[in-house]
Amino acid sequence: MSKTKIAVFSGAGMSQESGIMTFRDMGGLWEQYDITEVASPIAWANTPQLVMDFYNQRRKQLFECEPNKGHLLIAQLEKKYDVQVITQNVDDLHERAGSTNVLHLHGELKKVRSTIDTSLVYEMKDWELKLGDLCEKGSQLRPHIVWFGEAVWAMHEAVELIQEAEMVLVVGTSLNVYPAAGLMNYIKDTIPIYVIDPGSPAFTPQENITFIQKKASHGMEELIDILMSN
Ligand code: APR
Question: What separation in Å is there between the alpha carbon of 212 and the centre of ligand 1?
Fold first, then answer.
């Protein structure tokens, strides 16, 4: 008997209780920075050190963060379900909580890649990437992040995965950023969808959507009882 397929679509709110800032909440990351100055190819071309510093600070913080209860409960679902996490987050907290199938739509903070060969991707052991750190072909290494204006290379795979889902959990995303937020349009409208968020994410209410207006850890505690009991 194959396990029921659950897709978990997560965003920055998933990691908020681990101490990582969201982007659009009050005091969020994008209130302190101009996106175009730190998260775009133009910024990288014009002010690479500023971009490097932005990601180094976030990577340094990530090395000091731990997965929260919400990450751990999502990993726990794998005991009973075939779980595929599709995350907009660039942290590795889902993996560190024990989730074994994690697709990153917007890249990974602990990875860097060559600027002349995108297939050359390296795991960082320390938080600091510097100008002059080169790939094996001699080109500057850059954050392995999808910047604004760059293609979301994993989107096709994410669409296929969410179309196969028999249940979808949407946790901690404002559903403001496309193409990622467009995944909602690929979910079968006959399967149960649970949206967990203490705020008001941009989704159209429909009868197969249950909105749990709580933080990720509390919302997952409520949901895990339902999903692990039946
Ligand atoms: N638990 C669950 N959700 C939370 C929590 C929490 N503890 N705290 C905040 N939230 C919710 C907010 O209410 C909001 O709906 O998390 C969501 C965060 O939204 P955004 O800051 O817009 O983050 P996200 O949706 O992941 O942004 C998508 O935009 O800037 C780009 O690449 C960046 O991946 C990011 C993308």
Answer: 15
